[in-house]
């Protein structure tokens, strides 16, 4: 470029101030756009958890007329998408970035889902109506009780109280106070929960004896008249409940009151009301011991049972009597007996007599079981044998019965020995009856049916001969 061109450009710029201002504005505008672009990119990088691409820098270019302007080659910045850390806490406040945030109520609902364990409960039974009822329970302080159970028609049901419908399993929630539950921590602190299984008596007995009875008996604020009457009724209820709960399983369980166990016997004997309550419990014990003693000949009454049923009867009876003997040897029973002995109770002699009789019956049952166990294996073979196989098994069993008759303290009377042979006859009859197939007879299988009938007749005749030869 020569001197003339340079001067002309300089002079043109100086002579035309509007053109010079335009060029300055253009440069400023370009710098402003570049600054805005850098700022926007920087903001986007701060929002994003990844690395943002570097902002394109503007560069100067010379036009054909020698003027300098800012040229931008970058595209408009695209909106940045926030990158969410998968390990981030779900409770973080990220609603502005489009991330779902769980509420405290939803955390409680998930916790209740884990606590409600009912047989047959499916995930689809947790409908929106059920969730709405749970929210009502959490939000309404007046709703203190919430129960879950499954109905065959309605599915999962929720009630704010004890259900009046029949149910086999129940899960309950009880607020300690009338409060509105706002979060999971408060739910754990202010709400108790539990369940009743299929064994309602067992659940009720465990709840009463383990939770409520100690609270009632330990209350020192009640007047003596009210406390004595209430304690007496509660002891009677627990004694009956204990008896029913264990009798359903064929076990005799004594209700042992927890009241007065921490008091010396001499001091407790001076409390007349306490002595009367302990006497009521001892009367219930005497009734239970009498029932156990009267059932010792139950095996003789059952005319249709076999020798294996006789063995099982004495096995169960021995276990029951041994269990009662262990209960009578407990320190708590001895302490109550000592209290009533000091108080000179009129019920104590009868109880001691029944307890001594129980020890005798326990030894007798154990002796009977020891001898009858010798018949177990041969009688099992007899129970699996066919009619034509039984005559060769019966002599061995008869010989063992004779050994029992000679050595046992119980099976040494004619009527009792006859009862044992009657049970053996019942087993022979049952095996012959099982071998006869009436359908085959009426379907025309004459030869095989006639053969089976002849074998049964011959078996019974041989059994009669074996018995007469004894």
From TrEMBL:
UniProt cross-references to InterPro entries, sorted A to Z: DHC, Dynein_heavy_tail
Bias type Polar residues, positions: 1-29
Dynein heavy chain tail domain residues: 275-468
Gene Ontology biological-process annotations: microtubule-based movement
GO molecular function: dynein intermediate chain binding; dynein light intermediate chain binding
Domain of life: Eukaryota
Gene Ontology CC, one term: axonemal dynein complex
Positions of region (Disordered): 1-95
PANTHER family, A to Z: DYNEIN AXONEMAL HEAVY CHAIN 12, MALE FERTILITY FACTOR KL5
Name of the protein in its database record: Dynein heavy chain tail domain-containing protein
Organism: Adineta steineri
């Amino acid at each position: 470029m020569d001197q003339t061109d340079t001067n002309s450009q300089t002079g043109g710029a100086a002579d035309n101030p509007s053109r010079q201002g335009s060029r300055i504005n253009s440069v400023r505008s370009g710098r402003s756009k570049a600054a805005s672009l850098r700022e926007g990119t920087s903001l986007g990088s701060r929002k994003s958890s990844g690395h943002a691409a570097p902002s394109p820098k503007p560069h100067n270019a010379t036009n054909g007329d020698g003027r300098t302007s800012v040229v931008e080659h970058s595209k408009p910045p695209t909106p940045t998408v926030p990158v969410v850390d998968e390990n981030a806490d779900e409770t973080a406040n990220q609603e502005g970035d489009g991330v779902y945030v769980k509420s405290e109520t939803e955390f409680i609902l998930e916790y209740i889902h884990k606590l409600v364990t009912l047989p047959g409960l499916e995930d689809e039974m947790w409908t929106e109506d059920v969730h709405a009822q749970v929210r009502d329970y959490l939000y309404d302080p007046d709703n203190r009780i919430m129960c879950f159970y499954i109905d065959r028609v309605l599915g999962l049901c929720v009630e704010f109280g004890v259900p009046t419908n029949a149910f086999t399993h129940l899960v309950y929630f009880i607020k300690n106070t009338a409060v509105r539950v706002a979060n999971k921590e408060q739910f754990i602190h202010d709400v108790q929960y539990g369940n009743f299984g299929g064994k309602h008596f067992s659940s009720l007995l465990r709840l009463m004896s383990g939770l409520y009875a100690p609270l009632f008996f330990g209350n020192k604020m009640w007047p003596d008249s009210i406390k004595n009457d209430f304690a007496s009724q509660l002891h009677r209820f627990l004694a009956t409940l204990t008896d029913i709960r264990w009798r359903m399983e064929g076990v005799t369980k004594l209700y042992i009151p927890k009241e007065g166990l921490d008091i010396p016997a001499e001091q407790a004997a001076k409390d007349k009301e306490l002595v009367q309550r302990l006497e009521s419990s001892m009367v219930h014990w005497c009734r239970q011991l009498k029932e156990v003693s009267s059932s010792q000949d139950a095996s003789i009454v059952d005319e249709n049972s076999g020798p294996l049923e006789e063995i099982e009867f004495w096995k169960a009876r021995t276990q029951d009597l041994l269990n009662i003997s262990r209960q009578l040897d407990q320190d708590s029973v001895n302490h109550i007996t000592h209290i009533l002995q000091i108080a000179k109770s009129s019920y104590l002699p009868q109880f001691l007599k029944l307890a001594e009789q129980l020890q005798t019956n326990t030894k007798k049952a154990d002796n009977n079981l020891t001898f009858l166990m010798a018949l177990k294996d041969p009688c099992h073979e007899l129970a699996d044998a066919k009619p034509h196989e039984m005559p060769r098994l019966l002599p061995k069993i008869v010989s063992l019965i004779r050994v029992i008759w000679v050595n046992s303290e119980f099976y040494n009377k004619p009527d009792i020995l006859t009862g044992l042979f009657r049970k053996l006859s019942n087993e022979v009859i049952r095996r012959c009856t099982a071998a006869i197939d009436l359908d085959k007879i009426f379907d025309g299988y004459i030869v095989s049916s006639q053969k089976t009938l002849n074998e049964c007749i011959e078996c019974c005749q041989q059994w009669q001969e074996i018995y007469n030869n004894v």
